[in-house]
């Protein structure tokens, strides 16, 4: 570029920035123009918009905790919660908080350690009074039993289920004990189809790779939305947390690099050269060293995981499709698609053995204890058991139908078979080095899970946190199946609400002891007012107690106007089932035509309308829906990806009452029907 051109370009850029600083309205108009035309500055066609923070995330320091306490059965229980943001989340006025429960001996003040407290928050009805002990016990019993008629406002117990779907979405499901029912808590729209994911500490967020957009998106589990995104390399697939998940390593298959993301700062820290082709990553030595393979490279690279320094290169050969590492055995296993299992000594960083196996894709993982590794080979229909102490395969089970993934509980190995409607289980109680593990097959759905789905590197199975069970994603059946060991059929079937789940993950939301007698967990809640905090503690001294906790109503709900969309309908007026209704709203911020999307769906499942709102002029948009049955519905309006930086989504909860007709329509301009 010529010097004069540089000067002229800089002047144009300065004028644009000055104009942007003068008027907020002009900021919005120019930002939209810049996104769609390139504006003053040149824009890389691959550049992605950064996603905005949630409302309130930048609102300042956390609020001061509000503390209450109660004494029961010789114990003093103190409850407090500190809100982490100064305003509500854009999706439904939820606030995120951190709960703190302190349990001490009432007489001595000694901290009570090793407990598993369960807590439920329930909004008290207007005019209600504090709960007597018997009423408190009944309330706790209804919450603990998972009764559908008794739904708490917030729960600090159990777990959430996350499903990574075939379409660009992530489902957050809250399992229910009673009647094996589930509740779809949130459906998160992703900026593209996902390939892999990894959880942040405490499971409050998950990081998802989006290959088609060259980015990693962060999904806030508590708020149920995409919190932000980070540009990485070309075509990111694998993402692996290091140690305590303070950093995440992302394999960029398109440019032969690995991006290291700081888990605390949510920013890319460095980029490392790893080699061409598909990347696989494992950490050893307590997370201090990272081993990275590249399918089109002859060598595997070893990095100092803390500083990113290249320590060594090990010649393993091309075509590595799977990696597994064991700190106990100080060993790495690399499965190659040419029919070879490569054994690498971690200390000497040298190949010690090459074991012939069948050609084709494979999955390999070490069982708990780090001695035995299980290798599943799809095309060969075989599962091998490798003994690290002997450095060889000691058992092989054949005639399986395209086994593609292995996962472990304390007592069993679970093997998913793509070509079978059964789930295979092998016992871990015996010694595989001396006797073949016993194979048990249990029913899994109506069809084999193999289908025309995009490649996924995320695990389709997740062990249940209480142990003794597994949750399995079945994309063809559009269902999540729950298994308990010893049962020959699923103990629970969780519908995926019309979507095809390719991977599943479990997030523990219970209280954990952070110091003697002090238990903490993040949670979310809606609205203010008086709440009953129901506490149950099982142990030598059982406790069931209810504390009264008050919050100002105005402290937690700023209203829908904060989202730049004004509803032209009355959210409190109920719609009529079977009757066509037009819902209109006005945008306070300019946006390009067809840059909005809307979702109108029954909660938790049922009628769904999805489409583009119709522009009626003067910034007014409308959708026409025909809800099929009475119940609670949710309307979500949000910009599409290009408009993302300008606005956040707006959410309304609407009621639908019974009408003369409750016939389910096939389509109403969007996508009708049951999901």
Automatic annotation (TrEMBL):
Residues 53-64 have a biased composition (Low complexity). Residues 42-64 are annotated as: Disordered. InterPro entries: Haem_d1_sf, Host-pathogen_enzymatic-act, WD40/YVTN_repeat-like_dom_sf. This is Uncharacterized protein.
């Amino acid at each position: 570029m010529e010097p004069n051109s540089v000067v002229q370009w800089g002047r144009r850029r300065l004028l644009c920035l000055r104009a942007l600083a003068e008027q907020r309205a002009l900021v919005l108009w120019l930002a939209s123009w810049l996104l769609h035309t390139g504006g003053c500055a040149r824009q890389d066609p691959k550049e992605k918009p950064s996603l905005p923070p949630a409302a309130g995330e930048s609102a300042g320091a956390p609020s001061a905790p509000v503390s209450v306490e109660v004494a029961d059965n010789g114990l003093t229980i103190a409850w407090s919660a500190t809100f982490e943001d100064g305003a509500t989340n854009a999706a439904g006025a939820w606030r995120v908080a951190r709960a703190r429960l302190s349990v001490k001996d009432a007489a001595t003040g000694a901290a009570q350690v090793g407990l598993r407290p369960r807590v439920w928050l329930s909004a008290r009805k207007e005019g209600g009074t504090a709960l007597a002990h018997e009423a408190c016990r009944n309330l706790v019993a209804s919450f603990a039993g998972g009764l559908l008629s008794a739904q708490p406002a917030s729960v600090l117990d159990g777990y959430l289920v996350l499903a990574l779907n075939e379409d660009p979405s992530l489902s957050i499901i809250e399992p229910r004990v009673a009647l094996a029912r589930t509740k779809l808590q949130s459906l998160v729209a992703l900026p593209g189809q996902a390939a892999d994911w990894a959880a942040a500490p405490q499971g409050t967020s998950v990081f998802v790779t989006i290959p088609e957009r060259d980015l990693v998106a962060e999904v806030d589990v508590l708020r149920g939305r995409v919190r932000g995104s980070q540009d990485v390399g070309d075509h990111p697939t694998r993402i692996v947390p290091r140690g305590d998940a303070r950093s995440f390593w992302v394999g960029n298959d398109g440019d032969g690099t690995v991006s290291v993301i700081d888990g605390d700062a949510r920013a890319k820290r460095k980029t490392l050269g790893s080699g061409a082709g598909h990347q696989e990553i494992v950490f050893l030595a307590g997370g201090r060293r990272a081993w990275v393979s590249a399918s089109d490279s002859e060598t595997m690279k070893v990095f100092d995981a803390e500083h990113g320094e290249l320590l060594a290169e090990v010649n393993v050969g091309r075509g590595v499709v799977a990696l597994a590492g064991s700190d106990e055995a100080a060993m790495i296993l690399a499965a190659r698609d040419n029919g070879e299992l490569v054994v690498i000594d971690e200390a000497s960083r040298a190949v010690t053995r090459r074991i012939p196996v069948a050609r084709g894709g494979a999955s390999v993982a070490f069982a708990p204890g780090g001695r035995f590794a299980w290798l599943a080979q799809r095309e060969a229909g075989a599962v091998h058991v490798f003994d690290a102490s002997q450095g060889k395969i000691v058992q092989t089970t054949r005639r399986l139908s395209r086994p593609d993934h292995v996962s472990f509980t304390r007592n069993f190995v679970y093997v998913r078979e793509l070509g079978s409607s059964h789930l295979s289980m092998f016992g871990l109680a015996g010694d595989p080095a001396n006797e073949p593990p016993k194979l048990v097959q249990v029913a899994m759905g109506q069809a084999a899970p193999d289908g025309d789905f995009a490649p996924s590197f995320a695990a389709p199975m997740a062990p249940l946190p209480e142990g003794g069970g597994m949750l399995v994603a079945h994309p063809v059946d559009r269902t999540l199946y729950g298994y308990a060991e010893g049962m020959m059929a699923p103990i629970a079937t969780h519908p995926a609400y019309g979507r095809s789940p390719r991977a599943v993950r479990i997030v523990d939301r219970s209280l954990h002891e952070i110091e003697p007698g002090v238990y903490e967990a993040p949670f979310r809640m809606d609205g203010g007012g008086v709440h009953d905090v129901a506490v149950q503690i099982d142990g030598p001294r059982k406790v069931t107690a209810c504390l009264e906790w008050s919050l100002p109503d105005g402290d937690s709900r700023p209203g829908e106007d904060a989202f730049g969309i004004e509803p032209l309908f009355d959210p409190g007026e109920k719609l009529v089932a079977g009757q066509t209704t037009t819902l209109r709203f006005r945008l306070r911020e300019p946006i390009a035509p067809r840059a909005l999307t809307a979702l109108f769906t029954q909660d938790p499942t049922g009628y769904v309308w999805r489409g583009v709102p119709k522009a009626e002029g003067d910034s007014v948009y409308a959708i026409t829906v025909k809800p099929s049955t009475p119940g609670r519905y949710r309307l979500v309006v949000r910009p599409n990806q290009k408009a993302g930086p300008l606005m956040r989504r707006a959410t309304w909860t609407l009621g639908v009452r019974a009408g003369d007709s409750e016939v389910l329509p096939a389509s109403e301009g969007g996508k009708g029907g049951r999901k």
